[in-house]
Amino acid sequence: MQKCNVCNNQFQWKELLFSIWRSYKPIECSQCGKKHTINFASKFFVSFLIIVPAVVFGLLIAPDQGLSKPVTFGVIVGLAFMVSLILPLFVKYEYKN
Question: Phi/psi at 59 (nearest 5 deg)?
């Protein structure tokens, strides 16, 4: 899990998750007060892990299974939500002066 680059205080999983859900809102360290922003590679990683499974399911799996559009949409939203829950374990934030 990500730690503060200045004081090594570990960020909470909830802080990282809400930052991702709020369009990569910067995280402020609770000890030193420094703001950390998500790096570009992590933004790409998050987008990739959300979009690729949704596209694969929506275009390849759902039509073969004969699922209706509302069911397909619901599964895609649920899948994106489930993937977002593990993202705080992988994203990297950095402090820039």
Answer: -100, -25
Q: Are 36 and 93 in contact (CB under 8 A)?
A: yes
Computed from CA positions of residues 39, 90, 49, 16, in that sequence, does the dihedral angle turn out positive or negative?
negative
Per-residue pLDDT of the chain (97 residues; tens, 9 = 90+): 888 988 999 999 999 999 999 999 999 999 999 999 999 999 999 999 999 999 999 999 998 899 999 999 999 999 999 999 999 999 999 998 7
Smallest Cα–Cα separation from 24: which of 4, 14, 38? 38
Q: DSSP of the chain, one letter per residue?
A: --B-TTT-PBPPHHHHHHHHHTTS--EE-TTT--EEEE-HHHHHHHHHHHHHHHHHIIIIIHHHHT--HHHHHHHHHHHHHHHHHHGGGT--EEE--
Q: How many Cβ atoms are within 10 Å of 48's Cβ, its own excluded?
A: 10
Q: Give the amino acid at 59.
A: L
